[in-house]
Amino acid sequence: MPHDLSSALSGLREGRLQAAELLRMSQAAARSEACKHAFVRLFEPRPIEAPHSPLGGLAISIKDLFDVAGQPSTGGSRALSDAPPASVDSPAVARLRTAGAALIGHTNLSEFAFSGLGLNPHHGTPLNPVTQALDGLARIPGGSSSGAAVSVASGAAWAALGTDTGGSIRIPAALTGLVGFKNTARLTPAAGCIPLAPSLDTSCAITHSVRDAVLLHEILAARQVRLQTRPWSGLRLGVPRAMLEGLDTQVAQDFERSLAQLSAAGAQIEHIDPAPLRDFSALQIQGGLAACESWAWHRARLAERESDYDARVALRIKRGAGFTAADYLDLLSARRDWIAAMEQALQGFDALLSPTVARVAPELAPLRADDELFFATNLLMLRNTSVVNLLDGCALTLPCHAPGSLPTGLMLWATALRDDALLSLALQTEALLQSEREA
């Protein structure tokens, strides 16, 4: 089997592979044990023989937030069990369909995308198929886009459309050894998608490789990425020390090894302490924008159907009830000031580097049983990734673990609208880490 979407597309164009056969294999994987609980609903896509279309008739999964014509969008929740089928595709889905995607199904998620862990009490929680093959333990795939990551890791989809509000694409990508690219939010359409926090939500994708991430971004953003290779010696990369706290042993070792490889290639790496980063937690009081904006969307339905919500999600949403209009406007103003201060502090760096998440995938059972552990783990998993959403920036995670070990992610990130430079750097970094891994 081809190792990524781009390889499969090459096979289609050269006549070595057939889209119909690849779709049948994806459908079989979607119904396999490895994909248990990964989908809320499967679609019945018809084979598309369009080898020269951007996506070639290959399977792409859709997070159960995006409208797909003829299907309900339920956010992984019983609270939307009465949702009618969508009359039209959301813009992001429409762009994928026009590009030749075979839409294979709506993927499972943390209810309404409100958690970085991926647990779902309504539809079950998909297990991490990558870690299970390594140690046999029932570990989480991360969230909120849990089913999205599992669909790609298991072979049910070549790429997965999801959302990233605080790390919901990058966390599961990191924990399953995949690539997750969170673009600058304004570049991709969010209409026709159940929101969590519109000020932070980003429509984006999980893929097998950085080149696939470039392809999916070009389709979703309806723009061409301008790639440029630069000599390593001309790159200045910052490592915020605050994002290195509380790392487990493997994450720390994998990250330090990646820094050493980049440094050996000639990159200038500096450990930094951006002063505005110390103020990040102050912008999260009472749950921050996620709580405030989700409360605005959910308050009427919560009043009627709270018993149909995941109790942990309802608790987090209801934190937003304490915000006044003045509080909200103050928070938006404080965020604008914080972004300006961060942009000033990060001037001169081509990108920032950090571990995507602070630990490898945790086991599912303790998180399911213990509320205190659940919320503490969720906070830790979101810590590094959520900085980029508040910054309105762009970020990409790619695998940095050694072969045969549990997946860990290296996150490259930058301020708003530096997506093309970041993707260019990610392609170089991926190639460098892979060459070192294979040496």
Describe this entry's structure for a reader.
Helix content is 39%, strand content 13%. The chain is of the alpha/beta class and 439 residues long. It has a domain at 5-221: Amidase signature (AS) enzymes, CATH 3.90.1300.10. It has an 11-stranded mixed sheet with strand order 1-3-2-4-6-5-10-11-9-7-8, sandwiched between helices. α3 packs across α7, α8 crosses α14 (419-438) and α9 (288-305) crosses α10. It is globular and about 55 Å long. The mean pLDDT is 97.
Short summary of the structure?
The protein is of the alpha/beta class. 39% of the residues lie in helices and 13% in strands. 53% of the residues are buried.
Report the order of strands and helices: HHEEHEHHEHEEHEHEHHHEHHEEH
* Average pLDDT reading: 97
- Straight-line N-to-C gap: 23 Å
Structural class: alpha/beta
Keywords: Transferase
Pfam family, one: Amidase
Protein name: Amidase/aspartyl-tRNA(Asn)/glutamyl-tRNA(Gln) amidotransferase subunit A
Organism: Roseateles asaccharophilus
Topology:
Elements lengths: L4 H9 L5 H12 L8 E4 L16 E5 L27 H8 L3 E6 L21 H7 L10 H8 L5 E5 L6 H6 L3 E4 L20 E5 L2 H12 L14 E5 L8 H17 L2 E5 L15 H18 L5 H8 L6 H21 L5 E5 L8 H6 L1 H21 L2 E6 L9 E6 L4 H20 L1
Parallel strand pairs: 2-3, 2-4, 7-8, 7-9
Antiparallel strand pairs: 1-3, 4-6, 5-6, 5-10, 9-11, 10-11
Helix pairs in contact: 3-7, 7-14, 8-14, 9-10
Overview features:
439 residues, alpha/beta, Amidase signature (AS) enzymes, 11 strands
